[in-house]
Amino acid sequence: MVYQYLNGENWRHIYIVGDLHGCRYLLDEQLVARHFDPQQDLIVAVGDLIDRGPESLACLALIDEPWFRCVRGNHEEMALNALNSGDRMLWELNGGEWFYRLRGVELVTAKHALLRCHQMPLILHIHLEDRTVVVAHADYPAAHYAWGQEIDVQQVVWSRERIDRLQSGEGESISGADAFYFGHTPLQKVLHAFNQHYIDTGAVFGNSLTLEQIQ
């Protein structure tokens, strides 16, 4: 699945969270602090639920929660490629070794959850009352956003070209939507530039986890 549509009318509050990377406890702390109501509210994640942190399995369990949505990140892509091809080197080098330490029920649970990542969209299109918000992992690799438009999958989950330009003082808005939220590149603080918001603040490296409310 490339695009998935969400209508904001279905929730009271909507939050977007940066890369979790196995840090489920940090999300849980923020949900308590925000008085998050799973019956009325929604969390949207920018991908990279797994690897490097201590709770990859607990983060994968979020996929089954009705109050949670997530786009596919490059770490989910690496996991799927490793499971499909048997070549585990790239994933292990980037934090996937936790999976190969699992045994028994945990291993089966993790494998089933990871295979479900195939069903994650690459792009989440969120229709709010007064604006359209687009969520992807690394980039929306086009100057103009359009629902269903063909895009380069590799760039959606891996590209840092746009953020590199922004950090060097260049860049421009992406037309076709009001706001774009990305993760992928760990930063000391959130980067807001034009209509783009980069919210991976490196929680797994000891920084804070960013949770931004959009509704």
TrEMBL record:
GO terms for biological process: RNA decapping. This is Protein phosphatase 1. One of its GO terms (molecular function) is bis(5'-nucleosyl)-tetraphosphatase (symmetrical) activity. Transmembrane segments: none annotated. Coiled coil: none annotated. Residues 71-76 form the Serine/threonine specific protein phosphatases domain. GO terms for cellular component: cytoplasm. Pfam families: Metallophos. Gene3D superfamilies: 3.60.21.10.
